[in-house]
Amino acid sequence: MMGAVTQRFVRASTGGAETFLRADVAPCLLAAGIADPESLRGRSTATYEGRGRPFGFDARGVGRVFVRPYLHGGVFGAITRDRHAGDGRFESEVEAHVAAAAAGVPVCEALGFVSRSAGGIFRRGWLVLRELPGARDLLAVLSAPLAAARRRAILAAAGRAVRALHDAGFDHPDLHLKNLLLDDAQSGEVTVRVLDLDRTVRVDRLPRERRLAGLFRFDRYAAKQAAAGAPITRADRLRVFVAYAGPDWPAREERRAIARRLRRHIGRHARLTKAAS
């Protein structure tokens, strides 16, 4: 059951699809052909990296629209691929986007989802968001030449975005540089948005250890990219953490203790990864 935060969305069955779209844009999206998302690839205005080859297109009365197919990952991904038991996963991500935005977390604007039958109880799904032309993920941004002041501002914005996510109670299972998006094409201000809220869990108050687990996971990914040759320094990673901490959490000495714990965590993970390869 969808929560109260998504009461502005409407359901419809049309063209063999089930749609759950924001009421103010639903007629325009349906007129544009969103009920059959894959048919829109031929008129896409942009394509993106990621599973399922996400793409964007122009919809009259709406503007730029981003479409991301849902695919399974992990061990069973090759078997189940794009087949899902019902629409629950799609609904949950739309709800997470709406709730996060309402809580002040910088995320992309959710327009809804579309699902179609994949045989029996199985469904294929597509997430529909407002596209942000010119926005880039932080791994790509940090891998390009940047003025020092701008680099610092972007890293600080990343730390604040993750802090806002955690303060709102969201535990993101896949927090890393490619799931943070630099969005400064319109206003010129440095805004970093959190991407891919699929499978996020929200609680009333995110416990300290779950916050740290998310930060460690984020930092471990950055350290791994640096080891692979990306120009991401230890100072870059610490700037994200310091911005996350802000003036109130944690105290300086504790911050140093967490940094030491983080280094041990990264080293231990690197040794385990090497042993498994």
CATH topology of the largest domain: Transferase(Phosphotransferase), domain 1
CATH domain class of the largest domain: Mainly Alpha
Helical segment count: 8
Number of domains: 2
Provide the residue-averaged pLDDT. Answer: 90
CATH architecture of the largest domain: Orthogonal Bundle
Radius of gyration: 20 Å
Q: Report the structural category.
A: alpha+beta
CATH superfamily of the largest domain: Transferase(Phosphotransferase) domain 1
Number of strands: 13
Q: Report the β-strand fraction as a percent range.
A: 15-25%
Largest sheet, in brief, is: 8 strands, antiparallel
| Share of helical residues | 25-40%
Q: What is the string of SSEs from the N terminus onward?
A: EEHEEEHEHEEEHHEEEEHHH
Dominant shape:
globular
Poorly predicted runs: none
- Termini Cα gap: 43 Å
